[in-house]
Design brief:
This protein has 13 helices and 5 strands. The chain has about 325 residues and is an alpha/beta fold. Strands 1-3-2-4-5 form a 5-stranded mixed β-sheet, with helices on both faces.
Length: about 325
């Protein structure tokens, strides 16, 4: 049993590079699984292909994600406990249960060392919680801290609790997304990143202060750049050409998408002084974009921005 990690801060980005490839992942055949209880707006199943909707929902309400397996008695025990404690919060938390055997990209994204494992997603960012079975009072304390963290990041909405079992999605009891944001989200769901970027650009043109659209555009651009590329290809190219701007920009994208935020920033900031004017311009623009993806208030972003300023002047 792993001691819970107090959810005191957001801990980097979910592995977006894995989500880019979600359409290429198919469930393994021959598996017999038993879905956890629930299936409504508060407790529902997710997997690699459906996790985009979980990320979007987490911008309204914190999502507790449990990686479980039907062959693990601890898993089924923990899922039942989590469901009971999540429902007790009356829509201020939701529970997404992902069968680890059918969600290899989520297992990789959250760097799961064992099953069951519990993380949360708040405003699109992961928050490590704990692994293994924990006492009710410990989980309750972790959930209380998670709700405080969500409030700090504007994700303190509430989900309707009266949905019938078997509902296909969890709908927050909040106003719908602005039309252009919904258009972008729908485009992301079908893998059309050009259309999503266009919708976000239009939103920004209409309101340059639309911070969510700015961050959304940066995230979509990252997804588009990683689409069709494999981890091995990107890392091999970067290792073989340490001073090549394109190769280092690609691996920085990969690092950030996998939650290695400081590595991504350090790589580009270390490269920056070696470049000509055009190379420096490209790296600076990419860093600014990655700052938006990671979150402009993130302490790692603040430190990297300060370092970039010192390099520029």
């Amino acid at each position: 049993m792993t001691d819970p990690t107090p959810p005191s801060a957001l801990r980097g980005a979910v592995d977006l590079s894995a989500l880019v490839q979600r359409s290429q992942t198919t469930p393994q055949h021959g598996q017999s699984t038993q879905a956890p209880a629930g299936g409504d707006a508060i407790v529902f199943e997710t997997d690699d292909a459906a996790f985009g909707s979980v990320l979007e929902l987490s911008r309204t309400v914190p999502v507790v994600v449990v990686l479980w397996a039907s062959w693990s008695e601890q898993s089924t025990q923990l899922v039942a406990t989590l469901e009971r404690l999540v429902r007790a919060r009356e829509g201020r938390l939701v529970l997404a249960a992902a069968d680890a055997d059918r969600s290899p990209q989520l297992v990789q994204a959250f760097q799961a060392q064992g099953i069951p494992m519990v993380v949360a997603v708040v405003a699109g960012q992961p928050v490590p919680l704990f692994a293994g079975v924990q006492p009710d009072e410990v989980i309750g304390q972790v959930f209380d801290q998670l709700l405080e963290l969500a409030a700090q990041h504007g994700a303190s909405g509430r989900v309707e609790t009266g949905a019938e079992p078997g509902a296909e999605s969890a709908e927050p009891a909040e106003p719908p997304l602005p039309p252009l944001h919904q258009e972008a989200y729908d485009a992301i769901e079908r893998g059309d990143f050009d259309a999503a970027a266009s919708a976000y650009r239009t939103a920004i043109a209409q309101d340059p202060r639309d911070a969510l659209a700015v961050a959304g555009l940066a995230q979509v651009n990252l997804l588009a750049r990683l689409q069709g590329k494999t981890l091995d290809e990107i890392r091999a190219a970067a290792a073989s050409a340490p001073d090549d701007v394109d190769a280092q920009l690609d691996v920085a994208d990969l690092d950030l998408s996998g939650g290695h935020v400081e590595d991504a920033f350090d790589r580009l900031l270390t490269l920056f002084p070696k470049l000509d004017a055009d190379g420096k311009k490209r790296v600076r623009e990419r860093l600014v974009e990655l700052f938006e993806v990671a979150g402009t208030e993130d302490p790692r972003v603040i430190a990297a921005r300060r370092r970039l300023t010192n390099l520029l002047f």
